[in-house]
Amino acid sequence: xxxxxxxxxxxxxxxxxxxxxxxxxxxxxxxxxxxxxxxxxxxxxxxxxxxxxxxxxxxxxxxxxxxxxxxxxxxxxxxxxxxxxxxxxxxxxxxxxxxxxxxxxxxxxxxxxxxxxxxxxxxxxxxxxxxxxxxxxxxxxxxxxxxxxxxxxxxxxxxxxxxxxxxxxxxxxxxxxxxxxxxxxxxxxxxxxxxxxxxxxxxxxxxxxxxxxxxxxxxxxxxxxxxxxxxxxxxxxxxxxxxxxxxxxxxxxxxxxxxxxxxxxxxxxxxxxxxxxxxxxxxxxxxxxxxxxxxxxxxxxxxxxx
Length: 306
Ligand SMILES: [Zn+2]
Ligand SMILES: [Zn+2]
Fold this sequence. Notes:
Blueprint: E1 6-12, E2 26-31, E3 34-40, H1 44-50, E4 58-62, H2 68-71, H3 74-83, E5 90-94, H4 97-108, E6 117-121, E7 128-132, E8 136-142, E9 150-156, E10 162-163, H5 165-168, H6 175-182, E11 187-188, E12 194-195, H7 197-200, E13 201-202, E14 209-213, H8 222-225, E15 231-235, H9 243-248, H10 254-263, E16 268-272, H11 282-288, E17 295-297, E18 303-305
Parallel strand pairs: 3-4, 4-5, 5-6, 14-15, 15-16, 16-17
Antiparallel strand pairs: 1-2, 1-18, 2-3, 7-8, 8-9, 9-14, 10-13, 11-12
Helix pairs in contact: 10-11
The chain binds zinc ion (ZN) (2 copies).
Residues 65, 67, 145, 215 line the site of one zinc ion (ZN).
């Protein structure tokens, strides 16, 4: 079986104020041709165009919180999708008030969308399954920021077990029993003998996972919700020289993000949401890598495939 796509495109890396070369937060995740837009700061639709992303293929948009740098691009994107003739349903996941905000814009601009727009309210006190289909599941994860904020966790569902075809040839097993083997159960051959699952199957490839941790102060308990993920994005608005400022504003430093990555035993860390005060982003890597070596910057245009 060919491995399905699992690809993340970074559209924005900046904190509250954009700079001439850094946009506010937005990312596009493609898992098995399901396109998830994660946060939608100002200018996200231009970024989608710039990187030639298929933005009408986005059916799910996840908004972490209602600070402008994470959602002000949403009204414009919703409008462009309409103007370009969209018919497919679009679902937006985020805080309850987001529906009111978008509703008010549509009311006063007398906008009638040509496609169904649905809202699903997230809650920020516990981890929650918010969407799934047969291949992928998405959770919201509580974060600790100045206003209610969630992160999001995307996981491939477990793959069926692989049948060892060479061994199978020696057994007389029906198609229905092979299906049971793939699901991890023992089978019965056509003479009534029980065949242990491990005799005929091999472990499947492990499902991949991505955790997006938007604006948050450092808190150790976060690591339990994102344990063992393949890729973690964690904000790092500041360097250690502004650790106090990070605490006051409910943000994190690069070193703190690395500490969470190490505690959660993730495979790779991406840093983003850099304060406009910093020009040289290599300093973020210099502070994070001694704590968690496999760290990269989530800068515009970067594509990560798992
Ligand atoms: Zn922010
Ligand atoms: Zn914020």
